[in-house]
């Protein structure tokens, strides 16, 4: 690591305060040019510790971000990252999500979420291992939100900022993934009733199972397991879409044997 432990703790504190105050920070890669990926992951853990210790939040899952070419091109970040999901981030299908006091510069992305029925601990996790450990998949909106000013992020900035995670919304319908070609599942996204974007499961590293296996193995290097019952967000299949109060987002998931499966949310 390039940064000392005191600086790492301080930057985690700064990101936590930015989130709670609704104020953005300059990019960490500008204020601390020597920051590396390992530093960023430790800063993310320091930020998470503030949420767990001060706000009483609990970790309920993990997320992989910046997996698709569409998102990488949009953000100028060309490798995946990961973050932690807490119970305070979770919203039910159809939820009204407050922007003021809750989100700073939110963007919506459509994903396939996994719920696990068994633990997974990398390294060495394969797509078959992920499928065997999966209880169900669900359509999902993740509302990403950067605490870095104007989304001026490099990979170290978004990693430190808990992979730019804001909140997430899971669809009510739970689907058994066995027998499905997850790479060929398709989502269609609508904003305020109008078609916005579409994408296939293949957009995330060729297959959502591949993305989740990558995350399990990456976390394994930090001795962080996937646990039974956790939700894993596998990455956006479509470009990120800025949202603000008054917007409504809807997503439909389709594929062989899947009908009438979606998720929605609105912003107030």
Give the SSE map.
Layout: H1 5-21, H2 28-31, H3 37-55, E1 59-65, H4 69-75, E2 81-86, E3 90-92, E4 95-97, E5 106-116, H5 127-133, E6 134-145, H6 155-160, E7 165-170, E8 186-191, E9 194-200, H7 208-220, E10 231-236, E11 241-242, E12 248-255, E13 258-267
Parallel strand pairs: 1-10, 3-7, 4-13
Antiparallel strand pairs: 1-2, 5-6, 5-10, 5-11, 6-7, 8-9, 8-12, 12-13
Helical coverage, percent range: 25-40%
- Count of individual beta strands: 13
N-to-C terminal Cα separation, in Å?
41 Å
CATH superfamily: Fumarylacetoacetase-like, C-terminal domain
Share of β-strand residues: 25-35%
**What is the CATH-assigned architecture?**
Alpha-Beta Complex
Given the helix and strand composition, which structural class is it?
alpha+beta
What's the helix-strand series? HHHEHEEEEHEHEEEHEEEE
Q: If helices are DSSP runs of H or I spanning 4 or more residues, what is the number of helices?
A: 7
Q: Which shape, going by the Cα principal axes?
A: globular
Mean residue pLDDT: 93
């Amino acid at each position: 690591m390039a940064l000392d432990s005191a600086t790492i703790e301080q930057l985690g504190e700064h990101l936590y305060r930015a989130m709670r105050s609704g104020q953005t920070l300059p990019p960490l890669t500008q204020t601390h040019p020597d920051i590396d990926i390992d530093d960023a992951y430790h800063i993310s853990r320091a930020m998470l510790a503030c949420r767990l210790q001060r706000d009483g939040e609990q970790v309920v899952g993990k997320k992989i971000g910046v997996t698709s070419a569409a998102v990488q091109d949009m953000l100028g970040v060309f490798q995946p990252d990961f973050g932690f999901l807490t119970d305070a981030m979770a919203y039910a299908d159809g939820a009204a999500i407050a922007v003021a006091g809750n989100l700073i510069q939110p963007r919506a992305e459509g994903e396939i979420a996994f719920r696990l029925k068994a633990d997974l601990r990398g390294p060495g996790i394969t797509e078959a291992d992920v499928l065997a450990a999966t209880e169900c998949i669900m359509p999902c909106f993740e509302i990403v939100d950067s605490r870095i000013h104007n989304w001026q992020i490099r990979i170290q900035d978004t990693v430190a900022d808990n992979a730019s995670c804001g909140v997430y919304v899971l669809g009510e319908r739970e689907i058994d993934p066995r027998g499905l070609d997850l790479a060929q599942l398709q989502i269609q996204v609508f904003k305020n009733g109008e078609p916005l974007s579409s994408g296939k499961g293949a957009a995330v590293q060729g297959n959502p199972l591949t993305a989740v296996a990558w995350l399990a193995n990456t976390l394994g290097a930090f001795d962080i397991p996937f646990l039974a019952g956790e939700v894993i967000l596998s990455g956006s299949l479509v470009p990120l879409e800025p949202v603000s109060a008054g917007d409504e987002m809807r997503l439909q998931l389709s594929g062989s044997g899947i009908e009438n499966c979606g998720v929605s949310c609105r912003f107030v």
